[in-house]
């Protein structure tokens, strides 16, 4: 029975308590709480850290910023010290890092430590994206995730997670604790927001027709260039679609299956939405390499279906 504390309107449910109610293993509760703790250091780095480049590049050939490298180190250290992680892969690491040898009750984690890092210098929102699998295999389909989450560093810091039993949002309070703000988030079947990535003059005919259809329908353009805030908008408002299609010269688009797409696809599907590469659900793709990319259409079910119809006709 919820109770009121003096000065508070209602009892605040913290992340650990909420996780315990999901009836998942203690190790998974611990792991998700450790990631939540790490995010407090990441947001501190984002707020106060060096805005320069690191002088290195990642496996995609992207120039790493000092903040990419620092956020990656914060996350990796915390995962290693959690004691419940076997393999770790990140957008900013060249290969899989083995924290400990295979043993019962361990998890593997794939993450993007600071998605949208190039937006920090113009003070736009960024985020951390995390996928969790049982055991040590990181090259398996996203449907096998046992948990997915992101942390959005915006005017407020929010954490959205699912362990397959609904999608829930927590917001960081003045004590830097994550407390429950929305439970069992669900999406409408369609909506009037569209968030299209990639240069439009590199779109193929089907994508071009789909975007024109959305415009004719009066959909509002909402694209910040940060995957986490852009997805968060579609998910929280429960309406619309985010897409980053195949482009002329980039047949798999830009976004990465392991580090970006799988976690978001899991969250959006569990909120009643859909996520495909234009032909099949993203969560059913068996990745063959760490750096694999895919085109993405993610959001309300009917909007994603419509995109697939336009692609099939083209
Ligand atoms: P990252 O900062 O991790 O390299 O990823 C950036 C991603 C994502 O945040 C966003 O959706 C997309 O790249 C933006 O790409 P464009 O600049 O091509 O719009
Ligand atoms: Mn990058
Ligand atoms: Mn990213
Ligand atoms: Mn990144």
Automatic annotation (TrEMBL):
Q: EC number(s) on record?
A: 3.1.3.11
**Record's subcellular location:** Cytoplasm
Provide this UniProt record's keywords sorted from A to Z. Carbohydrate metabolism, Cytoplasm, Hydrolase, Magnesium, Metal-binding
Q: Where does Mg(2+) 2 bind?
A: 112, 115, 260
Q: What positions does the entry give for substrate binding?
A: 115-118, 223, 254
Checking InterPro entries in the record gives: FBPase_C_dom, FBPase_class-1, FBPase_N, FBPtase, SBPase
The organism's place on the tree of life at top rank: Bacteria
Which pathway does it serve? Carbohydrate biosynthesis
Q: Which cofactor does it need?
A: Mg(2+)
Q: What class of enzyme is it?
A: hydrolase
The UniProt entry lists the main location of this chain as cytoplasm
The cofactor note reads: Binds 2 magnesium ions per subunit.
Which residues does the UniProt record annotate as the domain Fructose-1-6-bisphosphatase class 1 C-terminal? 188-310
Residue ranges annotated for the Fructose-1-6-bisphosphatase class I N-terminal domain, each copy included: 10-182
Pfam families assigned: FBPase, FBPase_C
Residues bound to Mg(2+) 1 are: 91, 112, 114
- What reaction does this catalyse? beta-D-fructose 1,6-bisphosphate + H2O = beta-D-fructose 6-phosphate + phosphate
Instruction: Give the family from UniProt.
Output: Belongs to the FBPase class 1 family.
NCBIfam families attached to this UniProt entry:
PRK09293.2-4
**Subunit and interaction comment:** Homotetramer.
Q: What is this protein called?
A: Fructose-1,6-bisphosphatase class 1
């Amino acid at each position: 029975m919820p109770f009121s504390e003096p000065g508070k309107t209602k009892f605040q449910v913290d992340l650990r308590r909420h996780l315990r109610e999901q009836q998942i293993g203690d190790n998974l509760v611990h792991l998700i709480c450790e990631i939540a703790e790490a995010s407090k250091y990441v947001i501190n780095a984002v707020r106060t850290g060096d805005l320069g480049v690191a002088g290195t590049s990642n496996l995609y050939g992207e120039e790493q910023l000092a903040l990419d490298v620092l956020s990656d180190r914060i996350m990796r250290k915390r995962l290693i010290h959690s004691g419940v992680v076997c393999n770790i892969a990140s957008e900013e690491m060249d290969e899989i890092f083995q924290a400990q040898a295979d043993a019962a009750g361990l998890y593997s984690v794939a993450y993007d430590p600071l998605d949208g890092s190039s937006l920090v210098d113009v003070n736009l929102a960024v985020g951390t994206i995390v996928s969790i699998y049982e055991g040590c295999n990181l090259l398996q389909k996203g449907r096998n995730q046992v948990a997915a989450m992101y942390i959005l560093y915006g005017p407020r810091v929010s954490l959205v997670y699912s362990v397959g039993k609904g999608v829930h949002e927590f917001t960081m309070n003045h004590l830097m604790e994550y407390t429950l703000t929305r439970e069992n988030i669900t999406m409408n079947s369609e909506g009037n927001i569209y968030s299209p990535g990639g240069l439009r003059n590199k779109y193929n005919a089907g994508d071009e027709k789909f975007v024109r259809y959305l415009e004719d329908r009066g959909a509002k353009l909402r694209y910040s260039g940060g995957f986490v805030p852009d997805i968060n908008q579609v998910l929280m408002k429960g309406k619309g679609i985010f897409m980053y299609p195949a482009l002329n010269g980039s047949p798999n688009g830009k976004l990465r299956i392991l580090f970006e797409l799988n976690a978001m696809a899991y969250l959006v599907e569990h909120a009643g939405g859909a996520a495909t590469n234009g032909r099949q659900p993203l969560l059913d793709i068996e990745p063959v390499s760490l750096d694999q990319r895919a085109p993405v259409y993610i959001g309300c079910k009917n909007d994603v279906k419509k995109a697939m119809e336009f692609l099939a006709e083209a």
